[in-house]
Design goal:
Length: about 45
């Protein structure tokens, strides 16, 4: 029985934070390239 693909949403606190863009990029690249996951975002979430 095939497994469902991994789908992950990443949330942040919404405030300014040094390095948040780099951290989100690293998490997204790792999940998509190494784990074949789909990363989704939440608009105004």
């Amino acid at each position: 029985m095939p497994t469902k693909p991994l789908r992950i949403g990443v949330l942040t606190g919404g405030g300014d934070c040094p390095g948040i863009n780099a951290a989100l990029r690293a998490v997204t690249k790792s999940l998509t390239l190494k784990h074949n996951a789909e990363v989704i975002g939440f608009l105004d979430g």
